[in-house]
């Protein structure tokens, strides 16, 4: 997969923002998009996280030093884990390991666990 500089910058910004979510908290795809200055690109944030393994390898080959990106801390704006080929069960498990309460319907209370800063470093 070839990435131009703009796409590389977008993916790196997404991963950098996700790395700042504290353990035991969640945020939304839309809020990550907002934090990186691309509020209209929440779906692309989801795609970036979906392809994290491959894209992280591409970025690291080009000089980035991205380690484990806590993708599981990003959920949809309704407070639900997005459904995808059983990945929601893994995501729920990882969140529970961090002390986040996840309902059987894969819902998280954003008032209790949400992380929504106005900006990031």
Automatic annotation (TrEMBL):
GO terms for molecular function: catalytic activity. CDD domains: ATase. It holds the Pfam family DNA_binding_1. It comes from the Eukaryota. Residues 10-100 form the Methylated-DNA-[protein]-cysteine S-methyltransferase DNA binding domain. One of its GO terms (biological process) is DNA repair. The keyword DNA damage applies. The keyword ATP-binding does not apply. Keywords: DNA damage. This is 6-O-methylguanine-DNA methyltransferase. It comes from Candidozyma haemuli. The lineage of its organism: Eukaryota, Fungi, Dikarya, Ascomycota, Saccharomycotina.
């Amino acid at each position: 997969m070839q990435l131009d500089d703009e796409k590389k910058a977008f993916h790196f910004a997404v991963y950098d923002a996700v790395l700042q979510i504290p353990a035991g908290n969640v945020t939304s795809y839309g809020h990550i998009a907002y934090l990186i200055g691309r509020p209209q690109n929440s779906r692309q944030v989801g795609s970036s996280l979906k392809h994290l393994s491959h894209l992280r390898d591409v970025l690291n080959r080009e000089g980035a030093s991205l380690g484990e990106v806590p993708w599981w801390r990003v959920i949809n704006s309704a407070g639900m884990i997005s459904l995808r080929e059983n990945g929601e069960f893994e995501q729920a498990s990882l969140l529970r390991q961090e002390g986040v309460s996840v309902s059987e319907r894969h819902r998280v209370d954003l008032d209790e666990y949400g992380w929504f800063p106005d900006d990031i470093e």
